[in-house]
Amino acid sequence: MKSITPTALNEIIKKNAHTALLDVRTPAEHAQIHVPGVHLVPLDRLDPANLGETAGFTKDSPIFILCHSGGRAKQAAEKLSRAGYQDCVVVEGGTSAWATSGLPVVRGTSKVIALERQVRIAAGSIVLSGVLLSQFVNPAFIWLSGFVGAGLIFAGVTDWCGMGILISKLPWNARTASCSNK
User: Fold this and answer.
1) Max CA-CA distance within the chain?
2) 18 and 90, same domain (yes or no)
3) pLDDT tens for residues 55-83?
4) Are 123 and 60 contained in the same domain?
């Protein structure tokens, strides 16, 4: 799988304003901050058969894919490659690395926490609840913590996170906010 640094991609964009950029984060994450000119198609709604109609991308030209930090972009690249897109390029470190590099971004008014942080908060809350419930209610509740721990291991090994998919569908992650250039 190909990858590119944010700085190198910025140089390509300077030479060709019509560079195909794809953001596969949630609408709320996109509304908070995104790369100018990027097309938003959340990973859970990414349909390679309709990508040409949706964003005007073609199977034989490069598509540069961003998410928050790179994990969802890799999944999108694999999905698009399987569907015949020949040149899928993951932006290393995603939108987070782009912004950290001081490159231009569009900032909105949305204050939704990044999806990865929401997953960590939810997983930690469930684990802590399982421990407390097992201590004060019934020892069998420890299995709740074990289940979440096993899920986190599975997510780390496979780069597929069921909790992340569920959280991305929550109402605050589906709504968009108005954006302005800053």
Assistant:
1) 63
2) yes
3) 889 999 999 999 998 899 999 999 999 99
4) no
Name the residue among 96, 23, 13 with its Cα closest to residue 54: 23
CB atoms within 10 A of CB 86: 12
Report d(CA 54, CA 46) in Å as an integer: 10
Residue 161 a catalytic site member: no
DSSP, res 37 = T
Full domain range(s) for residue 149? 115-181
pLDDT in tens, 25-41: 988 889 889 999 999 99
Q: Same domain, yes or no, for 17 and 98? A: yes
Spot the catalytic one: 67, 88, 161, 179: 67
18, burial (CB in 10 Å: exposed 0-12, middle 13-18, buried 19+): exposed
